[in-house]
Amino acid sequence: MATTRKWKWPAVFLYRDGADDRLWHAIETSDCITVASGVCDFKETMYFDPSVWDMRNSEAGAWKVAAEVYFQGGGGDVDGEGLTVHVKRNSRLTVNASPEPVSKGKTITVTGKVARADWETRKYASYGGRLVSLQFKPTGAAPYTTVKKVYANGSGDLRTTVKASRTGTWRWVYYGNTTTGPSTSSGDNVVVK
């Protein structure tokens, strides 16, 4: 005969290196969503805000997902789901294309900088060595297309040249990695005469 136990609270958490290294922060839990007699599902949402809570840069990266529940009167249960999530630091890009305007066939220099959030200082810092895509969209056209890919130098600075062919907008795009999220710069329009 099965016994029903009342639960105190459920919680989803992230862990790595066994279950000793856990990442919690703010968790929002739904009420019990009954899926069968005596069986509940819960919807959990985790919030990470390094501007509010202290976070270490080393917390960026891969984490496994587990859930636990505690019962009234003592005891509990912990289950790993075999899922992996990536906690990522934000990245930012800037762009500047010049000269503006430019004569057709002349050289346009496109510069910028890639940076990422430093959770410990709560500022953005240079993110050198990243491969970033330079994209162009002609005036009146909808999609951007990748023109070339450029590695940022050790200080996160981007610099390349292209030939001026038509008026349009230039931007940089970084696609991110397992510890850092993607970002797209604003666009810089250059008129070609």
Summarize the structure.
With 193 residues, this protein is mostly beta strands. It has no helices and 17 strands.
Question: Which features does this protein show?
Answer:
193 residues; mainly beta; Immunoglobulin-like; 2 domains; 5-stranded antiparallel β-sheet; 17 strands; 0% helix; elongated
Please explain how this structure is put together.
The chain has strands spanning 7-16, 21-23, 26-29, 33-36, 39-41, 44-47, 61-71, 76-87, 91-98, 107-118, 123-126, 131-138, 145-151, 157-163, 168-174, 183-184, 188-190. The protein has 193 residues and is an all-beta fold. The protein has 2 domains: 7-87, no CATH class; 91-190, Sandwich (Immunoglobulin-like). The strands form 5 sheets. Strands 12, 13, 15, 16 and 17 form a 5-stranded antiparallel beta sheet that branches. A 4-stranded antiparallel beta sheet has the order 2-1-7-8, with no helix packed on it. A hairpin with a 4-residue loop joins strand 1 and strand 2 (21-23).
